[in-house]
Structure formats: C-alpha cells, structure tokens
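Thread title: Can someone regenerate the structure for this chain?

I was given the following input by a collaborator and told the matching structure tokens would be attached. They weren't. Posting the sequence so someone can regenerate them.
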Amino acid sequence: MSTWKIQGQYMETCNCNFLCPCITSNLAAVPTEGDCKAVIAMSIDEGEKDGIKLDGLSFMVVMHSPGAMIDGDLKVGLIVDERADDLQTEAIAAIASGEAGGPMANLAPLVSNMAGIEKRSISFTADGLRFAAKAGELIDQEVEGVASIADETQAVFIDNTAHPVNSRLNLAKAVRSMFNAFGISWNDASGSRNGHFAKFSWSN
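Best answer:
Regenerated them for you:
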C-alpha cells in the first residue's frame, strides 16, 4: 500500500443535543434523537497521495447512523471539492472511505452503505472560535466554540476520544446545521446542537 498524508482543519455538526453522547460513550450511546446525522468537513492545507498533490482542497463526509454508532449499519456519502481533478478525487475517496488505510479505516467496518460521491464548490472559513463550511446546495453548517473561562480565545476541549479525525476535539455548538445529501436531511439553527473542530493530521 502506498503512503499518504494530509493535514489541515476540520469541523462538524450533528443532530445530537450538545454534548453528543457518542463521544463520551466510545460510540456506544444512543444519539439524543435516536439516530445520528453528521457532516465532517475537512479542509486540507497540505497533503499528497501517490505523488498527487491535495493542497487547498476540501471534502465532506456525510453520515447517518440509525442507532448507536458502535452497532454499525452506517450510511456514508462523500462530497469532494469540484476543483479536484479525477486523480485527486480518487485519492480523496480512498482516504475518506478508509480504503487507503489511516483513521477512517477503523470506521469502515461499521459502514453498510456507501452512498456515492458528489462534486460541489466547497467553502471552508475560520474566524477565531467560529468555523463554517458549505458545499453547494447540499451542506451549510457553522459552529462556535465553547470558550474557556481560563482563556476566552481557546475552546473547552475533550481529549483521548475515539473520534477518527483527532483524539482531541474542541467543543462547539452548531450555529446552523443544514444537510440535504444522499437522502440524509437535517435543518437546525437553534444553537443547541453539537459541533466540534480541530486540527487534523492523517496518514497511513
């Protein structure tokens, strides 16, 4: 298997109330709505696979779990930056699905339905503790970190998690969370739903 590495910034929202019980239960808890709908947005600062440069590209993993994540039967779809050419799209798909090894390979056994790939214009913005990501008409999400009383420029975080993106996740609340992709729909702007953000560094 070839070697690869990507690093950059990630953010996500889901339909669980804050704080998502999946994280604190090692994926064993039933989501607060009974099922889980989540979108993991990844912005690659630097990366390559098999000599194919992935710098500056973004992708999103759209996920649905009908119950506790540990029980499996996950549906997963992938949205890739429309600026990615065919080779870059193939590389990102292999990384995001776990086919190329790395962190997502640990999640792969729980996935029963790979729902396909969509290409869209993806924007990913960061401003202090606020992170937003949008993919055409399919995804529009934004989070605001829960500022620490010890240092308001830093978010409260949870460490040593089983999350595939990073073992340390900043805690955040979803300012808005809209999904309409792969048959997975969600629309909330209550400010009470869960979010996370973190730097990531993936390799195999």
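The mean pLDDT is 96.
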